[in-house]
């Protein structure tokens, strides 16, 4: 029987509110929240959120997630995270990916978790490590799982230490050594960036909740890679409207970094995640992404 790693959900959803620059109403809501005037903060955020302000949508999602100033509503929080993520709010995308994974939509969550990992998010490292260990929505890769869990523990996530201890009972010394090396490479920028600077906005802790029973989710079927290519790919964005993914691909497909590469879409909850595939190896994918970033195109390398 294949070994599986248990998952602990406690403390995976801290509240990190958006800091400046913000619209006047959204900033007023943050100020009210800092004073403990949660209902007032909600009133300040509702208008901008309804008008499409991604920062207000993210802050309102956090409030619904914790049930402060409003009755807790996980579905409403998820809708707001998805809306903000579709507009490029990275914190919303990170939290949306975590929500998807915790409710069992592993294949949909993995691309968003991969993005959060590049930003040094310990929660995403923990969950993506769990996914790689169990083969949930990602190919089973114990050394990479060990590396991600090591980084999550270093990032202060205490439950990652328990998971590492569990991993060690099943993994060979060779795989552990490989995982240690992968973690070292990630610290140098080979798959994970430095953690973002803390926001001056308040950090409010959500009440601990028991981990939901992991549900089975069908893994996204990926086309077999072309001969001579690897499974490494470059993620080019996540879009609430599929037509926006089409427009982005038309804009980027003729760039030299993506010449001869193939488009691939993957569903992530309510978002469509756009990838370019067909890179010979990780180094080629990283080189393409670095060049795209120099041209002000956001991207990340994953597989």
Strand content: 5-15%
Mean pLDDT: 80
SS-based class: alpha+beta
User: Total strand count, please?
Assistant: 6
Order of H and E elements = EHHHHHHHHHHEEHEEHE
The major sheet is characterized as: 4 strands, antiparallel
What is the radius of gyration computed over CA atoms, rounded to a whole number of angstroms? 19 Å
Shape: globular
Please mark out the parts with pLDDT under 50 across 5 or more consecutive residues, or reply none.
Answer: 192-227
Strand order of the largest sheet: 4-5-3-6
Amino-to-carboxy terminus distance: 26 Å
Give the helix level as a range of percent: 40-55%
Architecture overview:
The protein is 50% helix and 9% strand. The model is unreliable at 192-227 (pLDDT under 50). The radius of gyration is 19 Å and the shape is globular. It is of the alpha+beta class. The chain contains twelve helices and six strands. The strands form two sheets. A four-stranded antiparallel sheet has the order 4-5-3-6, with helices on both faces. Strands 1-2 form a two-stranded antiparallel sheet.
Write the layout of secondary structure elements.
Elements: E1 15-16, H1 24-34, H2 38-50, H3 54-66, H4 74-86, H5 90-102, H6 106-118, H7 122-134, H8 142-154, H9 158-168, H10 173-187, E2 203-204, E3 233-239, H11 242-252, E4 262-268, E5 271-277, H12 282-294, E6 300-302
Antiparallel strand pairs: 1-2, 3-5, 3-6, 4-5
Helix pairs in contact: 1-2, 2-3, 3-4, 4-5, 5-6, 6-7, 7-8, 8-9, 8-10
């Amino acid at each position: 029987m294949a070994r599986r790693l248990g998952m602990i959900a406690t403390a995976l959803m801290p509240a990190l509110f958006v800091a400046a620059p913000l619209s006047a109403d959204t900033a007023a809501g943050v100020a009210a929240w800092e004073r403990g005037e949660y209902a007032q903060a909600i009133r300040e955020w509702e208008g901008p959120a309804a008008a499409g302000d991604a920062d207000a949508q993210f802050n309102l999602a956090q409030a619904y997630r914790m049930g402060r100033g409003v009755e807790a509503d996980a579905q409403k929080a998820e809708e707001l995270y998805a809306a903000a993520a579709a507009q490029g709010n990275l914190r919303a995308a990170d939290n949306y990916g975590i929500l998807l994974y915790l409710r069992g939509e592993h294949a949909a969550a993995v691309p968003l978790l991969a993005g959060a990992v590049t930003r040094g998010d310990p929660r995403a490292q923990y969950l993506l490590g769990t996914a790689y260990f169990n083969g949930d929505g990602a190919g089973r890769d114990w050394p990479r799982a060990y590396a991600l869990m090591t980084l999550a523990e270093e990032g202060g996530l205490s439950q990652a230490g328990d998971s590492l201890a569990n991993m060690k009972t099943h993994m060979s010394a060779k795989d552990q050594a490989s995982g240690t090396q992968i973690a070292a490479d990630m610290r140098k920028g080979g798959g994970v960036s430095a953690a973002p600077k803390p926001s001056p906005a308040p950090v409010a802790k959500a009440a601990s909740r028991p981990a939901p029973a992991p549900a089975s989710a069908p893994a996204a079927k990926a086309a077999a890679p072309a001969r001579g290519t690897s499974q490494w790919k470059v993620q080019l964005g996540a879009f609430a409207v599929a037509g926006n993914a089409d427009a982005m691909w038309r804009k980027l497909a003729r760039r030299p970094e993506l010449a001869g590469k193939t488009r691939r879409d993957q569903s992530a909850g309510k978002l469509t995640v756009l990838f370019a595939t067909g890179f010979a190896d990780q180094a080629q994918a990283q080189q393409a992404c670095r060049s795209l970033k120099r041209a002000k195109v956001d991207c990340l390398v994953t597989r």
